[in-house]
Amino acid sequence: MHATVGWTEDGQQRSALWRSENNAPPPKAVHIVRDDISADVAYKRASIGEYMLWRGDFNNARQLMKAITRRAQTRARKPTASPAEDFHLHRQDQARRARILGMLLVELDANYVLDYPRAPDVRLAATEAYGESAEPSLLSLRELLSLIGAHEWRRTGVHIPALDANIEPHFGVFSPLRGEYVQLVADTPLPSGSTTAFDIGTGTGVLAAVLAKRGIAHVIATDKDPRAIACATANLDRLGFADQVEVQLADIFPAGRASLVVCNPPWIPTKPTSGIEHAIYDPGSRMLRAFLDRLGKHLEPGGEAWLVISDLAELLGLATRDDLLAAIDRAGLLVLGRTDTTPTHPRARDADDLFHAARSRETTSLWRLAPR
């Protein structure tokens, strides 16, 4: 259920649905602002938690957002002796900026029309993100810009060399830009006689597609996010794998067993702040531990699992290799082998990044596991 926000404008009572991907609380009060508001005033009002509903030229709103963003930037920190402390402070800064930037609102009418001078047509992007609408909506300009960007990603797609095709990520579904983990799954020799596979936490469906392309006769791809289910289904259908891959809404495992189980879990054991961050952040490594603990019940005799995970959390001091090995051991599993690769994303080479020391040493590994 969406909350309804009410406000008074030009002497009339108005209301609209509240939309927030990062679960920001609905406004208790809404203040109308126009083209004449200065960036300094807007920033001060946003900083104290005042929601401002824009009623002016759309391009001016975008310029105002850029100005608020500059003012909300935290002065560059020097790394401390504790990467974990640096990381937690960084996440606090990110949350503070997100709160401030989320205070500038726009309204979509019941048909997702953005009724502002010089506003783009966002009806398709909003429908892709939210589904059909029958009521006006209030959302932050920041979120609106993100769904416009997501629409463009979906339209152009992300090229996956292992598939020689594009994957089209949907709004709220993590994009497979970190291609090294996809290539690991594409290159690792399949267990002998593998005819069935589970892709756990499928997201866009990219790994399920790779497994199908490699000849696995029956793949079940699971995810607990309905948006991911819709995204994976659309990608697999478009790529011609609908007959090989079954997509299921499930919290980790489907029923039954498979000869190969593949999982690329969230790799940072801390709290996500939006739906899409669940692909990266997992408090207490809940998904990883649940996957390992329940894995043995879902492997066919002689089968194996591929756990594909980054060691960035270890390099940041948020987890240890001993933690991972102990979890594998407690689950009654043994390590058959491990293949490592280095990240190719630009941040791994950005010397100005606060976490460059960790990112430059990051390794993504495919751990081959089997029951003892």
From TrEMBL:
Organism from which the protein derives: Rhodococcus sovatensis
Alphabetical GO biological process terms: methylation
A GO molecular-function annotation: methyltransferase activity
Name of one Pfam family that matches: MTS
Keyword Methyltransferase part of the UniProt annotation: yes
Keywords carried by this UniProt record: Methyltransferase, Transferase
Protein name: Class I SAM-dependent methyltransferase
Domain called Methyltransferase small: residue spans: 193-310
